Every structure is written in C-alpha cells, then in structure tokens.
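Input chain follows. Return structure tokens only.
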Amino acid sequence: MTTQTTISKFDVESLTPIFKFILKGVRSEDREEVQSEAVLRILTAIDKGQVKKDIFTFSHTVVQRAVFDYYRKNNRMISKNSTSVNFCDGADEEYGSTIDYFSYATEEIGYGLSDVKTDYLNNLCMFTPQQRRIIDFMLFTEEGIDMKPTEISNLLGLNKSHASRAMKTLKKLCQG
C-alpha cells in the first residue's frame, strides 16, 4: 500500500531533476515563471488529493504540461504594434534646461492584429468551416481574443483538434 503525499511531506527540492531535464530547452528568462506555475499546480493537486500513485511521475507530467501551456499562451499572443513619440519644441526653463529634445520609442509585440485579420480574410480558403468559426470568434469578438483556442472550440461545441489545426494554419499564414 502506498502512502498518499501531503503538502507537509512534499519536498520541492525533489523536483530538481525534473526541472533540470525538462527545462533545459526552455529560455532562461522563462524558466522561473514556468517553474513557479508547475510547483503551484503540483501543490494544488496534492491539496485536492489528485495524486493517486507516484508523485515523481505525476510531477514530471505537470512540469511538462506547464511548459507547453506557457509557450502556447505566449506564442499566440496577438497585440497591436505601438509607437510612442515624445517631442519638446522648447526648453524646460523651470528645471534650468536650455536644450530642445526629440525622442521616440517603438515597441513591437506579437503580430499586428489588423495584419492578422487581413491575412486571414485574404486566405479564408485555407481554413475549414469549423476552423473559420474558431478564428472568427477569436479575432472578431471582444472576449475571443483573450481565450485559448481550445476554450473557444469547447464554447462553440467543436472538437479541440479543429482549434489546434486552425492555429497551426494561422501561424503559418502569419509567418509566411
């Protein structure tokens, strides 16, 4: 008979070999966030009594899924490209400065939403009707942009494989 793991008996250091193995391919700036998410998921599962057998195997699976979920979420991020421009046409005499300045900063994150919409609309023939329903909901509804494709497919009553294929096709389209 195996004893069930509890939070008080669980040693986070026991995850070190799992983290070393699974996180070796994860970008160094992302490791801490993935690790934190995985530990949180493991502790939550232990607290709810969801770990039935081997904690090591269970933890390995949870860490692996945390990595997949992290990159899935961050790779599908679509936000508008933004440019902010600051211009001063006079000296700031209040602070004793007599120099005029012009500065600008450009920040580009993800794909431009309008570009993705245009590429998608110009290539509708590449998508099945089910995939179009998922992408339409994601790109053209306010709540859809914040949802995962699998959540959208569940909401629309479609198989999640349609969501996966739709995102794969959309990604190829945007990168091409």
